[in-house]
Description:
alpha/beta, Aldehyde Dehydrogenase, Chain A, domain 2, 37% helix, oxidoreductase, Succ_semiAld_DH, Succinate-semialdehyde dehydrogenase / glutarate-semialdehyde dehydrogenase, oxidation, Aldehyde_DH_Superfamily
Amino acid sequence: MIARTTDLAALLADPDLLADCAYIDGQWVEGDDGRFDVQNPARGDVIARVADLSRSQVAGAIAQAEAAQKEWARWTGKERASALRRWFDLMTRHQDDLATILTAEQGKPLAEAKGEIAYGAGFVEFFAEEAKRIRGEILPAHARDKRISVIRQPIGVAAAITPWNFPNAMIARKAAPALAAGCSFIARPAGATPLSALAMAVLADRAGIPAGIFNVVTSSAAGEIGKEFCRNPSVRKLSFTGSTEVGRILLRQAAEQVKKCSMELGGNAPFIVFDDADVDAAVEGAILCKFRASGQTCVCANRIYVQEGIHDSFVERLTARVAELRIGDGLDPGVDLGPLIDRAAVEKLQGHIADAREKGGEVILGGDTADTSGSFFPPTILTGATSDMLFAQEEIFGPLAPIFRFRDEDEVIALANDTIFGLASYFYARDLGRVTRVAEALEYGIVGINTGLISTELAPFGGIKQSGLGREGSHHGIDEYLELKYICTSV
């Protein structure tokens, strides 16, 4: 049922959390297509070989999830809440082991991984409580002999495709509202980081979540599994977190079924520092926002705009602080930045830096790969950034901080909004009028004011423009997995 990779298993208090088979309908399943390797990006060694499912196996999992969902939907909200609460308790109890698994496959520092486990568990706790709050309505009738009621019902089978940068939290953020609503759920985790999802399945089983309700299908055939999710009519909802390019493909494929989709896609977050800001606070916020997960998040600062009056002071202070960050294996103590996910990510950063240098940008810190194995890249600061450079329109996804100089409020708002993306944005200012004007003018689904951290299960997370559709988190998040039904009764 569960094979163990010796080195990683030895680090765990509960080695049974290290699963290497897919989890379908309460069973651990081998893959028709054999197995694929999972590597530690810090060392490059294989830490597990995971079941590689075929498209037909995933189709079978969908059918089983559809059958199981009917009974789950009949459970009361309180019953579903109790099961989710047990899942939350187990995730919290096993936080250290879950974080170790996450760091081994994804690379982020262990302390940061522990934070992700707590963040993911927070969604399970929150939506356990929301399961009891799915309300209907009685509306004024249009005739004396009619009564109008509106109820909310689970949409059915929900499928999710999740990324490698948050292998626990992105599944929890989708699965928790789906299960709370009464849906069954099938997760296809990223091929680089399937072990965190499988560990969640181990705990879901222990929590008493019924067979077929939470499923994890592991596969190296990302395109084929995506097609099955999109084209299988039994999948009534698809949730995807990943690039805008892939999101467009999935939306086109899902359109054949007129399938309900939520998309959390790419970002190009501006981080604006006005001349009335607390510069030291802005520096700390920029470090948290830019270098968390080695810059590999969709809400990381992509473009740092600093008003010309404080530009030099900000750059000096930011450079001094970033120079203190320690890069290394996420399992080692005291590490601030782990590796990038693979060599392709390193090469993308090198391309961005080469492009910027050709166009007049100056690297004042970092800029070259670290002298170590794996896919490491040092925290890098580049000044003289301009809007014709690649990173002005593309998502960086790495620890590169380009700094742009701007003159006034109108100019920076125009620059910040000059992108197809609209996920997260940030700015630092003290003037109350400016705070109000800028917050309303920025074309983004999320605005952080005087803070570099904006993610919480209590707030609706999502973007506008080509950064996505729908919202995750908060009481709005459960609506993505519910259908409204209007009932007209003649009396």
